[in-house]
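Lecture notes, part 5. Sequence design as translation. It can be helpful to think of inverse folding as translation between two languages: the language of shapes and the language of residues. The source text, in structure tokens, appears below.
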């Protein structure tokens, strides 16, 4: 996952990963956004396949420990993850996954059919003073 925070509080993520990807850099980028202390919205238009997104057991454990450490900030500052998926059938399929996602990460997974709609949704979630 690569984060682009140049348009903060809109933070675009690329969820595709190359072999040998440095997960520590991902955690560092995420923590940098949390340290801002301001609410933000994650957005992505890259949806990895299940096979491409498989994590090794040690990566899963590391993520779980990181999430436990940052649970309060995640719930308070990350307003949502908005995933862009133009295919309506796939969006419908992701709705079932959204409940599991929210329980795991502590913030909702919302679906948009375009980048424009995702940005509009994100701006509606943000407090008036930071839109």
């Amino acid at each position: 996952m690569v984060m682009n925070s140049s348009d903060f509080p809109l933070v675009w993520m690329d969820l595709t990963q190359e072999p040998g990807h440095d997960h520590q850099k991902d955690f560092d980028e995420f923590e940098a956004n949390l340290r801002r202390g301001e609410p933000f919205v994650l957005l992505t238009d890259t949806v990895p396949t299940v096979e491409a997104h498989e994590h090794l057991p040690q990566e899963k454990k590391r993520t779980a420990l990181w999430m436990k450490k940052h649970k309060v900030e995640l719930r308070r500052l990350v307003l949502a993850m908005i995933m862009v998926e133009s295919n309506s059938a796939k969006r419908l399929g992701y709705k079932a996954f959204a409940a599991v996602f929210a329980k795991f990460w502590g913030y909702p997974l919302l679906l948009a059919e375009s980048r424009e709609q995702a940005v509009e949704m994100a701006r509606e979630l943000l407090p008036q003073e930071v839109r």
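The translated text above is only one of many valid answers, since several sequences can fold into similar shapes. The two ends are 25 Å apart (CA to CA).
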